[in-house]
Amino acid sequence: MSNFKWSLKYWKGLVFVVLILTIVGVFYQQKNEPRSNRQVFNLTELLQREHTQGDYSILVDEQGNVLDKMARSVYLHDEFIASDNRRYEVVRIEGNKAICHLLGLEKISLIKVNSTVLKETALPVQAGNKAVGIYYSHSDESYVPSDGNESIPGNGGVYDVGTAFANSLEKEGYAVINDTTPHEPHDDGSYRRSRRTAISLLKKGVAAIFDVHRDGVPDPNFYRRNINGQTVATLRFVVGRQNQNMSANLDFAKRLKAAADAKYPGLVRGIFLGQGSYNQDLSPRAVLIEAGTHTNSKENAIKGINLLADVVPAVLGTPGAGGTVRTQSTAADWKGVFLVILAFIVGGAAYLVISAGSWENALSRVRQITSIEWVNLLGWQQQRRPFTKDDKQEIAKKELSDKEFKNNNERADWQKD
Amino acid sequence: MFGYTIGVLLLVIVFGLIYFGLAQRVLDRLYLSDKVALSLLVAMIVGSFINIPLTGGRIISSINVGGALIPLGLAIYVLYRAGTSREVGRALLGSVITAGVLFAINIVTRGKEAWAVYALRLLDPIFYYPLIAGLVAYLVGRSRRAAFVGAILGVILLDIADLIFYVNQGLRGTVAFGGAGIIDVTFMSGVVAVSLAEAIGEARERLQGGPVAEGHSKSLLANLQQPMQKPLPNETEGEEGNDE
Predict the structure, then answer these.
(1) For residues A239 and A281, is the Cβ–Cβ distance under 8 A?
(2) What is the CATH number of domain A104-334?
(3) Pick from A71, A275, A347: CB nearest B17
(4) Is A343 in Cβ contact with B15 (below 8 Å)?
């Protein structure tokens, strides 16, 4: 027994030392990397699946036709709504190819997004909400032809694209909060940091939040298109599947796409429903926009996103006084609410059964919660402590006083009323 | 169901648990009474709206009252009340290792989409952070309270690492400790850590048919029913412990 314990301690200590050494080593290596090109994260070149350079996923249908390319990992069951509104599901992954099965034609209704109809049917759920919030989870993302590098930590080219979007929305009459908080380094902590930014935007009462990114597919022509007589970099919306707001946010993205399709066909490349949450659990009106790719010029990306700003009023409604926005409640929102309640009940029951050990115990615990816990919480629980000398004296005193003031008892009774 | 993945359902379950009561149950485990736990929860929700600025200029930093200050205070209180120095040591070690593991994941995922790394691809970082923090903190800390301290301090250390990163790299940066308030990764990790500790601990004890008594010192066994803890200065003998 003691031998076993000793060896356990030894292994734990060893693991700890190795961990510390690894961290120190990685730090040391990073510090000694040349920093001349302002590229901070050189370590990534040693590792696979680079987001920003070269490696990307290709979505193909079952006949082998290319549907989309994107510099993000695609997983089984991820879904994709193409620009022609066909909805696909990833059914197989072969290398960097994701084979998609056609699910059908997605209903993307235009009726709801018509602004005059919207005014009549609007069901304001967030009355008094102002403005639109814009933020940048990957604040280093940049455009090589314009910025000279694909990654500029703390001051990426996406800032200019998002700011142009903000300015265009302001021209439409919206009050826009363009939050340029950086979230460096570009790692999986980016969304932990940007979560705080997104929350601060929501605290300011924004009706919708846009997280502006750019893609990392090397071919600039894949994104480049001639729309409305000008060359623009097209856009993609990304909706996270891992949160309770998925259906609401997908609905929001679909309505944005429908509005764009009506005025500028082809501007929106598609909607990708991927793994992750992208902080979209915070709002049912949140969408991630990928404006072009790193090999597009920033100017083209700005032109593309400006066209999107032009169609936003069809979805968010014409801004009211002071640039306020009222968003309407959709069936998709209620689906999310229902799901949360359902999951809470299922999860709560599971937790109770596990911690109580059996159904009977769990049930008796529920009874206990309803009978005792709330009483206890509100301070009505009777004091349970052993009799002390003081108590006895207290009771004796009370009996005495009862006797003494017997005549007053009658008065005390009517005073109660 | 509804086009959601199983992962989503799982997440939503966790989400619901956290926001509709688990947090309060967790606070219950930290030498706090029901009433104090509930008032702290309310304080954290209100405090989520209060950010105290720390530094300005190139590196802006702030601390959120509900998301970091109260959880930090709670962690320190738990350390103060811990009965043995071993428990304190384990909790502190737990927090350092938690921060180390999360930091290592950060380094591995740099420059990539967050979920492009094997084994982490199932969940969004917002969700696997608390899970990893909770698991590591529990494995090292070996108790609910140590897990809580480890997870909270672990994530705060991670934010401090960001701060050091910005200073070293000369970058513009913002560090908002617990900036998302009660739904920040900081407190979420603490909650998940305690829940995991409870789930693992209870399941293990049930499997082996009760706690292991063999090979432990008598002084520790004496506290099996009720853990050893330092009494508060004004606490009198005979008062009921908070632990069930």
Answers:
(1) no
(2) 3.40.630.40
(3) A347
(4) yes
Q: Which helix (H) or strand (E) is B199 found in, with range?
A: helix B185-208
Contact A73 B115 (CB under 8 A): yes
Across the interface, which of A1, A41, A191 has its CB nearest the CB of B126? Answer: A191
DSSP B22: I
Nearest CA in chain A to B62: A196
Show me where the domains of chain A are located. Answer: 104-334
**CB contacts < 8 Å between A and B, how many?**
220
Map residue B82 onto helix, strand or coil: strand
Residue A379 clears pLDDT 80, i.e. is over it: no
- Specify burial of residue B157 (Cβ count, 10 A radius: 0-12, 13-18, 19+): middle
> Do the Cβ atoms of B105 and A188 come within 8 Å?
yes
Which residue of A lies nearest to B93 if distances are taken between CA atoms?
A16
Q: Which residue has the higher pLDDT, A122 or A383?
A: A383
Q: pLDDT above 90 covers what percent of chain A? A: 32
Question: What ipTM, to 2 d.p.?
Answer: 0.75
